[in-house]
Write a structure and sequence with these properties.
By secondary structure, the protein is an alpha/beta fold. The chain contains 30 helices and 22 strands. The strands form five sheets. The protein has a seven-stranded mixed sheet with strand order 1-7-6-2-3-5-4, sandwiched between helices. A six-stranded parallel sheet has the order 10-9-13-14-8-15, with helices on both faces. Strands 18-22-21-19-20 form a five-stranded parallel sheet. The structure holds adenosine-5'-triphosphate.
């Protein structure tokens, strides 16, 4: 590909803005003009006088907030390129393709131009003509999708290269020119190979065609992505949120969007990506955050946690809740003035049966019951010659006799108390788990020491998911417009249900890798996971092109695949740099010193360094690093040029990446898990965190497949 980068040592090669025949100079002046236009757009918003347009205080507050958000969104960030690509169409596309929103389309004038600069946000000049087009607009799509085979009406695709905020290079593809051969992009390659520091960054300039298809998939359906380590699942999920917010801004502003990640460190690592794409309104949480109904202070055995996470528990809970509804034994007698109205028990029973059959939430049915009873009273009043109206029905519904009847036959249930009883009371559990859990399973689920109350109980993480299920049986959980679930392979069926009920009326993006499942309940298949999520029909896509891990390293890690996830496709690596890869066997007594030495070596390279070790090894290694005078961070703490070494417990490594990784004692990582398969999966995660180099240091023997 023809690449145009000036040689800074040659003065004649530097762009001359006054020379209209120098294409780089012209692109730079378009950049300068776009920057000026963005500043003007910002100044326009800042100059808005809200006093004239807002009649009252509430309006003015809301509007002021909107304006402030808009000003933030229009900031010109010095270190991010305002545009990174350009498209020349053969024919000018229609106005509707230029921008997504009506105002911007009108502002863009639309349809008249065939040249578009593609960037992170829309910028227009004083006349409303577009200077930079949002990467998410339909007109930008060929930047990601067009190829020589399918040029999508594109004559020229240009990619820009930046050095420290300066536009310094560009690269052209003449997609409709049959004489030009297809070639790979060196700017793209450079971007992929760039050393990592700090939190995760956006990939908006280099999204690949198969990724773009997932990013732009319609909001109506749920998409599930299976992808080997480093294939860009997290990146794709975050860009998909940004895309959906652009294409369906109003709908999602009302209903909300949520990104779910495995732990706090991971959420810290990814939290900058969406703001960099101009999206500030997306909530981020772990599954535990979603179901935090009570404080978690206990830990289950793996077996108990697995059983509590089993989907069968949903039926146990449903039965236990329903058991609170009792057959009315007494009539309901309402006294009004001098008259008494009696709804007999058999009629109350009919009402209850009817409500049960309607399959509505327990709480909604309970709320409806007083009105149903009142209605039965009203019918009798009419038969008795009275002419009661709606107000009378309301009054009867609030009558103490009606309230007492409701309390007796359909009592209020507190979700945590319901779960507490199930886990504490063997007879209650046996009654409702009959035919669902066998005796041993019931025993495993029961707490060793029954709890006295919700506050004092030693709740475990899996219990809170049960409470969440119970809460949803009583009152419908609020559903969001779109949910992204990352590292989805690790959830239990009950956790999938908890996530699923948060997007019953919306859609979801499910991202994960079956080979990286490290919980005892990790899912065996995406079909199963999707069924528990309530999205059974969703399409499963596979990403196999790896952007992170060097070829030799991914090949080494993939040797574990037959043991940990037979049938999965091994990832390829699109990194050209071979990467450093070493496996060092040392005398067990000298292991710690060898690890510290490997960290020192890694620190001679540019970028971030991760020392990954079994959780049990962390205290010893922390001490050794400190004694050696090496400062280190915890995962999720931001790496910087001064602090580049992170000490990573293997259980927190998932989803993270470091330029150079030192992996301490693989056998200890495997032994840190309750069974061998989980141990090898944990090791697979640890082996696949490196971008530029991996050094494995071991004193004990390696797992068989890695020997
Ligand atoms: N199209 C792309 N262009 C440039 N970099 C990319 C691209 N896609 C992914 N990357 C980079 O590759 C790395 C891995 O991406 P990401 O963390 O999203 O992968 P993942 O599939 O979620 O990995 P894991 O399974 O290990 O969690 C990140 O640094 C990401 O920015």
């Amino acid at each position: 590909m023809p690449s145009h980068a000036p040689d800074p040592t040659d003065p004649s090669d530097l762009a001359d803005p006054s020379d209209p025949s120098d294409p780089l100079a012209r692109e730079r002046s378009h950049l300068a003009a776009s920057r000026a236009a963005l500043r003007a757009m910002r100044a326009d918003v800042e100059a808005l006088d809200l006093r004239d347009v807002t009649a009252n205080w509430v309006n003015s507050e809301a509007l002021q907030h909107q304006v402030e958000e808009r000003i933030k969104a229009l900031a010109d960030l010095a270190d991010t390129a305002l545009f990174f690509g350009r498209l020349n169409y053969l024919h000018a596309p229609g106005a509707e393709a230029v921008e997504g929103t009506e105002e911007e389309r009108l502002a863009a004038g639309g349809g008249s131009s065939d040249t578009f600069y593609i960037g992170r946000r829309h910028v227009h000049d004083a006349d409303g003509d577009p200077m930079v087009i949002d990467w998410r607009a339909p007109v930008s799509q060929p930047f990601y999708q067009a190829s020589k085979k399918a040029p999508m009406d594109i004559a020229l695709r240009r990619r820009f290269g930046y050095t420290g905020g300066e536009l310094t290079a560009y690269e052209d593809e003449h997609l409709s020119d049959p004489a030009e051969a297809e070639h790979s992009s060196s700017l793209l390659q450079a971007e992929i190979e760039r050393p990592r520091v700090g939190p995760m960054r956006d990939i908006v300039a280099t999204i690949q065609p198969e990724q773009d298809e997932i990013v732009r998939a319609g909001i109506g359906g749920t998409v599930c992505v299976q992808g080997a380590p480093g294939t860009g699942k997290t990146a794709v999920g975050l860009h998909r949120v940004a895309y959906l917010l652009y294409a369906h801004r109003e709908r999602l502003a009302r209903s909300g969007t949520l990104v779910i990640g495995p732990n706090r460190s991971f959420l810290h690592y990814i939290e900058q990506v969406l703001p960099a794409l101009g999206e500030l309104q997306v909530a981020q949480a772990t599954v535990d955050d979603l179901v935090a109904h009570v404080e978690v202070r206990g830990t289950d055995t793996a077996e108990a946690a697995r059983l509590k996470g089993d989907a069968r528990m949903a039926e146990v809970l449903r039965r236990a809740l329903r058991s609170h509804v009792t057959t009315p034994a007494e009539p309901c007698v309402v006294v009004r003035g001098s008259r008494r109205w009696r709804v007999p028990a058999y009629e109350l029973e009919e009402i209850v049966e009817e409500l049960l059959a309607r399959n509505i939430r327990y709480g909604a049915a309970r709320d409806a019951l007083p009105q149903r009873i009142a209605h039965a009273v009203l019918v009798r009043m009419e038969q008795g010659g009275e002419a009661p109206d709606d107000r009378v029905q309301d009054a009867v519904a609030r009558n103490t006799a009606v309230k007492a009847t409701v309390k007796a036959i359909w009592p209020a249930v507190h979700p945590a108390k319901l779960v507490l009883r199930l886990l504490s009371d063997a007879d209650f559990l046996a009654e409702h788990a009959d035919g669902i859990l066998d005796a041993d399973e019931q025993k495993a689920v029961l707490w060793a020491k029954p709890a006295r109350g919700v506050k004092s109980a030693k709740w475990c993480a899996a219990d809170t998911v049960l409470i969440d299920e119970a809460a949803d049986l009583i009152e419908r959980t609020h559903s969001l417009g779109h949910v992204v679930l990352d590292e989805a392979q690790d959830l239990s069926p009950m956790q999938y249900r908890a996530v699923g009920r948060r997007c019953t009326t919306g859609s979801a993006t499910i991202l994960g890798d079956l080979a990286q499942g490290t919980t005892p309940w990790a899912t065996a298949s995406w079909q199963e996971a999707l069924t528990h999520l309530g999205k059974a029909g969703a399409a499963v896509e596979e990403l196999t092109q790896g952007f992170r891990v060097p070829r030799e390293v991914i090949a080494y890690a993939s040797r574990l695949l037959p043991d940990i996830a037979p049938g999965l496709t091994e990832a390829t690596s699109i990194r050209e740099a071979a990467g450093d890869f070493a496996v060092r066997q040392v005398d067990p007594a000298g292991l710690d010193d060898a690890v510290v030495a490997a960290c020192r070596e890694a620190l001679t390279h540019e970028g971030s360094i991760g020392l990954v070790a079994a959780d049990a090894r962390i205290p010893v290694l922390a001490e050794r690093l400190a004694a050696a005078g090496l400062t280190y961070l915890a995962p999720g703490e931001e790496t910087s040029a001064e602090a580049r070494l992170t000490l990573v417990p293997a259980t927190l490594a998932k989803g993270l990446e470091y330029d150079y990784v030192v992996l301490d004692e693989p056998a200890a990582v495997v032994d840190g898990e309750p069974d061998e398969r989980t141990g090898l999966r944990r090791l697979y995660v640890a082996l696949t965190r490196a971008v530029s180099g991996l050094t494995v240091v071991h004193g004990a023997g390696l797992p068989e497949r890695l020997r």
